[in-house]
Amino acid sequence: MRQAWLPFASYNLWSLSNSRVGQEFLFCDMNRGFKKVRQKEPQVKVLLEDNKHQRIGKLAQAGVYEFYQDPKLLSQSDGVEKVAAILKLNQEPEEVQERIIRILKNYCKEPILVGKQIIQLSKGDEGFPSPIIIQEGSYCFNLYAPTDCTFKQPDGTIHILDFKTGKSDFDRRQAYVYLLAASYLYPQQPSVASFYNLEIGLTSDIIIATSEQLKFVQIELQDIAKQHELEKKRYWENPDDFATIFPPNPGTSCNYCIFSSICKFSVCEVLR
Ligand code: SF4
């Protein structure tokens, strides 16, 4: 039976809806409009598909997955080359190839999943995950919290590990979304979350959350889901109001924005 449609929330939507404290200059609400409302328009779609950072993230995840499937590769002198061949790395742009090879070599030196009791490990190409249906008061929404890796610690604690690449900071909001999801998926066990940057070998602190903090996160996500649906509806009714509904924030943020080539508010556009 098909499930009834529900609004959704995710870490991704949270990060696109609210700025991180102190990073307001990098935040642009119009980004959410492009990514989450106009994503099917051909010119937007092409920019979303041709995203080098996402590609590197997916290939790095796939590389870790392949090493986990065949741990012998970790100690073979041509293990990295073999994984690179499985990933068809030679079909990728040069920069992507170089960074993934570096990541695979780093992982061979520091194979952090070896010896872990893995419950789930993503290959990176699974597509859209199944949502967790959350009811907050009378409001229901789908929570999407796709995890890179989940393992069980020797004391039974569920540990959700998120892999990073590049210079992206660890955002605790993402960990809280994972911990909220874990409270539904593994209600009998305590859970923790952490991040590991595969490119620079950096591990975050272990992040935990009290039940009060998780309740706060759940309410925050509910508000975000509600607000996003309202704004989507306003846009469909009045597409000309795009910039009013999703206000642009031209400036430093444009330098990192994949939509700068099509956004009429882009600082680059203004300078041209
Ligand atoms: S180009 Fe600048 S103003 Fe336009 S969506 Fe991107 S960050 Fe916002």
Low-confidence stretches: none
Structural class: alpha/beta
End-to-end separation in angstroms reads: 53 Å
Please state roughly what percent of the residues sit in beta strands, choosing from under 5%, 5-15%, 15-25%, 25-35%, 35-45% or over 45%: 5-15%
Count of domain modules: 2
Q: Biggest sheet, open or closed, and with what strands and sense? A: 5 strands, mixed
- Rg over CA atoms, rounded to whole Å, is 20 Å
Q: Your description of this structure?
A:
This protein has helices spanning 11-17, 29-37, 42-49, 52-69, 79-86, 94-109, 172-185, 211-237, 242-245, 252-255, 267-271, and strands at residues 8-10, 117-121, 132-136, 139-144, 149-152, 158-164, 191-197, 202-203. With 272 residues, it is of the alpha/beta class. The chain has 2 domains: 1-39 and 116-272, no CATH class; 51-114. The strands form 2 sheets. A 5-stranded mixed beta sheet has the order 2-5-6-7-8. It has a 3-stranded mixed beta sheet with strand order 1-4-3. The protein starts with 7 loop residues before the first strand and ends with a helix. The model has no long low-confidence stretch (mean pLDDT 93). Residues 28, 30-31, 248-250, 253-254, 257, 259-260, 263, 265-266 line the site of iron/sulfur cluster (SF4). Iron/sulfur cluster binds at residues 28, 30-31, 248-250, 253-254, 257, 259-260, 263, 265-266. This is PD-(D/E)XK nuclease family protein. It comes from Plectonema radiosum NIES-515. Keywords: ATP-binding, DNA damage, DNA repair, Helicase, Hydrolase, Nucleotide-binding. Residues 54-264 form the PD-(D/E)XK endonuclease-like domain. Pfam families: PDDEXK_1.
